[in-house]
Automatic annotation (TrEMBL), chain A:
Residue span, Solute-binding protein family domain: 88-467
Organism, as annotated: Symbiobacterium thermophilum
Keywords assigned by UniProt, alphabetized: Disulfide bond, Periplasm, Protein transport, Signal, Transport
A Pfam family recorded for this sequence: SBP_bac_5
Lineage, uppermost ranks: Bacteria, Bacillati, Bacillota, Clostridia, Eubacteriales
Protein's recorded name: Periplasmic oligopeptide-binding protein OppA
UniProt topology in membrane: Lipid-anchor
TrEMBL record, chain B:
Cleavable signal peptide: none
Coiled coil regions in record: none
Subcellular location: Cell membrane
GO biological process, one term: transmembrane transport
Single GO cellular component term: plasma membrane
Source organism: Symbiobacterium thermophilum
InterPro entries: BPD_transp_1_N (IPR045621), MetI-like (IPR000515), MetI-like_sf (IPR035906)
Name of the featured protein: ABC transporter permease
Transmembrane segments: 9-27, 100-121, 133-153, 173-191, 227-252, 272-295
A Pfam family annotated for this UniProt entry: BPD_transp_1
Length: 549, 309
């Protein structure tokens, strides 16, 4: 009996020691909670956010991902920045002039723009930054975004020295940019991270460390990063040196890295964060919450079709596939987050023409779901091909959402197009890209997001031999329309716009891709958070105008 | 003994070298490139960038260069976190992983041992059954289920402990608990089986016959001899837990190393794949070595130097 008792005591001791350890620290936990739990009486201008990933880099020349772009958009500023209506607003530039032929832009810079170390932001900072992006030694993965500038491509390929770039500082506050072609959307390009200024002295003094820590980065935007703990989170503070600081209301933004959506939702529920992105499985639970919102991104997802395939070389077969899938059910049951069916290539709410009309408003739906018609076309295709049974492979991403979509597509296609067997092949992202670019696929579920605010970022994908075409589809008329829009029609913007409208129509006469949906995003945001601006390209969010009410 | 240790160290270096070689060549078989904006680049643009990183050279050339740098202690720079040195990347992340792993091991081992011993002494009573049910559950419930459960009930519903983040000791309790359950279960199971075997062996009978008290028999003879298999599983377990676990770290937003093992592979981040693999292998090899040394301490019957009497 005594022995039993002693054993019990040992156990008890072990358990209590552990609990004591927890208990002792619980007091400090409460203290901390006390200060963090203020949302109830929230008037102080502090925003608490989550991000799904660590910042890969704050070097604007090297940034390639959404997280870096968002941070850069808020801690730095280019010549222009996207405003609340997603049109470019003056940033470091005050105004600009364009030459008659549209090839020379002269930007007047404001004299009160400063770096966070007090140095003025000058035209030389832009010259240095843009040369650095294009220098092959930098190995910038977004260098091509500058290829419209004179000599940019040659410099990036190492054929010309960087000082041949068509960018000059006429004086400290005047920047002259010479373009290869008169691209009409050049000003909106300058909001993109790669075009942001860099302070030569600072960048050189930091060397390899530039952009890797909060204190090895220099800022000129509405906020600075006061702290950056890798893999854990970062803190924005209002930048006292920012020229427009009077319009910046938030004092602090705390961002924490949380990769798991369920965790993120739990943090929102316990009021640790003010905004959280939702994945499909959480939408049903929160759909009727007053803080539930969705927004539409300009990203389009489609089925790419390999037109060299024995079945998919037939245009009626391709049309049948494009029309046989119930997209409405796909977006409402599988995604359920503000995503809309896409019957087009160029996304809606993305870009307006010279006449102020949205591209979609003008071209409308170009290929709609129509199972009856699909069946008819399918029978016709089978007759033309002289075969009754076909097996094709559907190349897919390997994440959970794509998995469900893949199965849905298989089920729809096999049900509506008798004689068709679809085998799903899932591959990790990089491997999938490789297979696509080698055209080792039949159907591929894939998508595209814009690089700049112009329909061309979607339309020129499909010209013959475009590295992103990957369908083998080729149409001389389409090629010509794109070529004209990029050259001769640049002087007549309405004609250029019409050419792009026509090209999109042409594409869906031959359907090398079957559009599926334009992606939406669902999120929860506390009602006291106001005016976080969501952008269709560049960095996704601006906090410049945001505030707590 | 010294000779034995020297020999083992040489073997360890050779093992590490083989691992480095095999990993390097296997990794190069992964399709795709480490470029992050790959889908938007044309082949020419890709070439420009691959050139800069020396990825256009033949694989054997890259291999020799890598080994050369490795000898100098240079693990290269990451692609996904542009130009961040791999040693720094591992260094920044190993802290939280190691702390969690350590806490889970200590707590898990103590509780597991007590549970195992208790079950063995109470063989075939309700106490034994309870302990067995606990260990079966501990092994069969996936850690993400348990972690999600703990987070929801203790973090969200009861609000006793923080849901996630990494800002002090109280933030480590839930992830430690979630991690330690499998340790408890494994240790308890092994300890129980081993204790039962030891308790029925002849020398225990002898000890009892000599009139030594039950407690002394258990503490001095039974427990000590039952620890050998525990030490065997403990070595790799420590390395596994202290280098981070993807699932637990993701769920509790722990800024640890765990994710990098998987993420670097899916992103073709070659230097990080090599860095994490070598780091993990080196620790594992070291742990196995220490376990071998410990055998001799726990059980004098095991002679390390073998026939070298």
């Amino acid at each position: 009996m005594k022995k039993k008792l002693s054993l019990f005591l040992v156990l008890l001791l072990a358990v209590t020691t552990f609990l004591a350890a927890c208990g002792g620290n619980n007091d400090t936990a409460k203290d901390k909670d006390g200060s963090a739990n203020k949302p109830d009486e929230k008037k102080e201008q502090v925003l608490n956010l989550l991000e799904t990933q660590e910042i890969p880099t704050l070097d604007p020349a090297l940034a390639t991902d959404e997280v870096s772009f968002i941070v850069l958009n808020n801690v730095m500023e280019g010549l222009y920045r996207l405003g609340k209506d997603n049109k470019p607003l003056p940033g470091v530039a005050e105004s600009y002039e364009v030459s008659q032929d549209g090839k020379v832009y002269t930007f007047k810079l404001r004299k009160d723009a400063k770096w966070s170390n007090g140095d003025p932001v000058t035209a030389h900072d832009f010259v240095f930054a843009w040369r650095r992006v294009l220098d092959p030694k930098t190995a910038s993965e977004y260098a091509y975004i500058m290829y419209d500038i004179k000599n940019a491509e040659e410099i990036n390929q190492g054929k010309l020295p960087v000082d041949q770039l068509g960018v000059k500082a006429l004086d400290d506050y005047t920047l002259q940019v010479e373009l290869k072609n008169p691209v009409p959307y050049f000003v909106s390009l300058t909001v993109f991270s790669s075009f942001m200024p860099q302070n030569e002295k600072f960048v050189k003094s930091q060397g390899e460390k530039y952009g890797l820590e909060a204190n090895t980065t220099l800022y000129n935007g509405p906020f600075v990063l006061s702290e950056w703990k890798h893999e854990q989170g970062w803190t924005y503070k209002k930048n006292p040196n920012y020229w427009d600081k009077d319009n910046v209301k938030l004092e602090t933004i705390n961002v924490k890295v949380v990769k798991d959506t369920a965790t993120a939702v739990n943090l929102y529920e316990t009021k640790k964060v003010d905004r959280v992105g939702l994945s499909a499985e959480f939408v049903d639970k929160y759909k009727n919450d007053k803080n539930f919102h969705t927004f539409l991104e300009p990203s389009i997802f489609w089925l790419r079709m390999n037109t060299k395939n024995e079945l998919l070389k037939n245009v009626n077969a391709r049309k049948a596939i494009a029309m046989a899938v119930d997209k409405e059910a796909l977006v409402n049951t599988l995604l359920n987050n503000g995503t809309v069916p896409a019957n087009y290539l160029v996304p809606k709410d993305f870009v307006q023409g010279p006449n102020g009309k949205d591209f979609r408003e003008e071209n409308g739906d170009l290929i709609k779901t129509d199972v009856k018609e699909a069946k008819k076309l399918w029978e016709q295709a089978k007759k033309e091909l002289g075969k009754d049974k076909f097996t094709i492979e559907l190349l897919n991403y390997d994440d959970d959402v794509a998995k469900k979509i893949g199965e849905y597509l298989k089920e729809q296609l096999e049900k509506n197009l008798p004689g068709l067997t679809v085998n799903i092949k899932q591959q990790p992202f990089k491997q999938k890209l490789e297979l696509e670019s080698n055209m080792q696929y039949d159907l591929s579920f894939s998508g595209w997001g814009p690089d700049y605010q112009d329909p061309m970022t979607f339309i020129d994908l499909w010209v013959t031999n475009s590295p992103h075409n990957q369908t083998g589809w080729s149409n001389p008329e389409y090629d010509k329309l794109v070529k004209d829009a990029k050259t001769t029609l640049l002087s007549d913007l309405q004609a250029r716009w019409d050419a792009m409208l026509k090209a999109e129509k042409l594409l869906f006469e031959e359907v090398p891709i079957a559009p599926l949906y334009q992606r939406g995003r669902a999120y929860l945001q506390r009602e006291y958070v106001k005016d976080i601006v969501i952008h269709p390209f560049g960095g996704d969010f601006s906090f410049k105008w945001a505030y707590i009410e | 003994m010294a000779r034995y240790v020297m020999k083992r160290i040489v073997y360890m270096v050779i093992t590490l070298f083989i691992i480095a070689t095999v990993t390097f060549f296997l990794m190069k078989l992964l399709p795709g490139s480490p470029l992050q904006n790959q889908e938007k680049l044309t082949p020419e643009q890709r070439q420009i960038i691959l050139e800069k990183y020396g990825l256009n050279d033949p694989v054997p050339v890259q291999y020799v260069r890598y080994l050369g740098n490795l000898l100098k202690g240079d693990l290269g720079v990451s692609f996904q976190y542009d130009n961040r040195p791999v040693t720094e990347l591992i260094g920044e992340r190993i802290g939280p992983s190691a702390q969690l792993g350590f806490q889970a091991i200590v707590f898990g081992t103590v509780v597991g041992l007590l549970l195992g011993i208790f079950a063995a002494i109470r063989h075939n009573t309700w106490g034994d059954y309870t302990a067995t049910v606990i260990s079966v559950l501990g092994i069969s419930i996936p850690s993400f289920v348990l972690a999600g459960f703990l987070q929801y009930f203790i973090g969200v519903k009861l609000q006793w402990l923080p849901v996630a983040f990494w800002e002090g000791f109280e933030y480590t309790i839930l992830p430690t608990l979630a991690l330690s359950v499998s340790v408890i279960a494994n240790i308890a199971r092994f300890m129980r089986t081993e204790m039962l075997e030891v308790l029925s062996s002849d020398y225990i009978l002898t000890a009892r016959a000599k009139g030594i008290s039950n407690a002394a028999v258990i503490v001095r003879h039974a427990i000590r001899n039952s620890l050998i298999p525990i030490i065997t599983i403990l070595g790799p377990m420590i390395v596994n837990l202290m280098t981070g676990t993807l699932v637990i770290e993701n769920i509790f937003a722990v800024p640890g190393l765990g994710e990098q093992f998987v993420r670097s592979i899916s992103l073709n981040d070659y230097p990080v794949i090599m860095g994490t693999t070598l780091f993990y292998s080196a620790l594992l090899i070291l742990a196995i070595f220490i376990v071998d040394i410990l055998y001799g301490v726990v059980d004098p019957r095991i002679r390390l130097a073998g026939g070298n009497k």
